[in-house]
Specification:
The chain is built from nine helices and 14 strands. By secondary structure, it is of the alpha/beta class. The chain has a domain of 147 residues: HUPs (Rossmann fold), CATH 3.40.50. The protein has a three-stranded parallel sheet with strand order 1-2-3, with helices on one face. A hairpin with a 3-residue loop joins β8 and β9. α1 crosses α8 and α6 crosses α7. The N and C termini lie far apart (45 Å). The structure holds glutamic acid and zinc ion. The site of zinc ion has 5 residues, from loops.
Length: 306
């Protein structure tokens, strides 16, 4: 399905939105940051729709996201891929992990988990209650991967060295939920590798997920891309902009204005006159002037109220 899987020589980046709503200022940051970093390296930029979580998907959102990217003058290389069409591939990875005795079914209820766990960096640290369960055909419950006591370390382009001990900080994490939905952590690793992604540029809300992804990459013998985690825009209440916090859709009738706001947020300093130019002139300026050093090295930035 994905024809061009080799990263050959060059840079290959991606934008991987979840179709839980239309593009908004928060997701625009990840789109623009990943696009500019790819294009300023003469690289390719791919779009992948992360539509595994069907209960959270909004009908028509994928289409609208792609239309908005087009309206903003952002062109992707190669076909868009949809994770929903790749479930067999994720299942094969689970089968392989099962043969290596790396995964197990977890039948704990939510209540059992909250009674036996302590709070970790992202959710509860699973206590490993079901570790000795054996995975048989026709899974029961969620599928978890065994973690260990090693330190996973990587260097983020903006945030420097980050390390995590998965056993202590996340515990054995879920690769497939009990409702049979493959977890983001699994799918993102499989697809970044399948698409030959060399550079991941995304929001810093995913910084703490990266060690889990590197752990899976190592188990699968994949290479680890370079990671750059951009600041995340939060509203006045400190909440990430999202559909849940009622972030406004982008007004794509004024694309250059939106793009100017996005690059400003990313610390770039576009000349004010650019606002009157067309999309092409905006991108010309942005490709040449994109400078990672100017991006704020913060995890979150509060947006001024408008
Ligand atoms: N689909 C994820 C999101 O929209 C992003 C995944 C990623 O960039 O790794 O939050
Ligand atoms: Zn369990």
């Amino acid at each position: 399905m994905i024809k061009n899987t080799t990263s050959v020589l060059g840079y290959r980046g991606r934008f991987a939105p979840s179709p839980t709503g239309e593009l908004h200022f928060g997701s625009l940051i990840a789109a623009v940051g990943s696009y500019l970093d790819a294009k300023s390296h003469d690289g390719e930029w791919l779009v992948r729709i992360e539509d595994l979580d069907k209960p959270r998907e909004v009908l028509g959102a994928s289409y609208k996201i792609l239309k908005s990217l087009e309206a903003l003058g952002m062109e992707w290389d190669h076909e868009v891929i949809y994770q929903d069409q790749r479930k067999d591939i994720y299942e094969n990875v689970l089968t392989m992990f099962n043969k290596r005795k790396l995964i197990y079914p977890c039948t704990c209820t939510r209540k059992e988990i909250s009674n036996s766990s302590i709070a970790g960096i992202s959710g509860q640290i699973y206590a490993g209650t079901c570790r000795n369960n054996i995975q048989k055909d026709g899974y029961l419950g969620a599928v978890r991967i065994k973690t260990n006591n090693n330190i996973i370390e990587f260097k983020d382009t903006l945030h420097g060295l980050i390390n995590q001990n998965l056993q202590n900080e996340t515990g054995d994490f879920i690769l497939r939920r009990s409702d049979k939905i493959y977890a983001y952590q699994l799918a993102v690793v499989v697809d970044d590798s399948a698409q030959g992604i060399t550079n991941v540029v995304r929001g810093a809300d995913l910084l703490d997920s990266t060690p889990r992804q590197i752990y899976l990459q190592k188990l699968l013998g994949y290479s680890t891309p370079t990671y750059t985690h951009l600041p995340v825009a939060v509203n006045n209440n400190g909440e990430k902009l999202s559909k849940q916090t009622k972030a406004a859709h982008l007004d794509i009738s004024s694309p250059v204005k939106q793009l100017m706001q996005a690059v400003n947020f990313l610390g770039q300093e576009p000349p004010i006159e650019l606002q009157r130019e067309n999309i092409m002139s905006f991108w010309e300026w942005a490709f040449v002037n994109w400078n990672l050093e100017k991006i704020h090295k913060k995890r979150i930035i509060r947006l001024p109220t408008r």
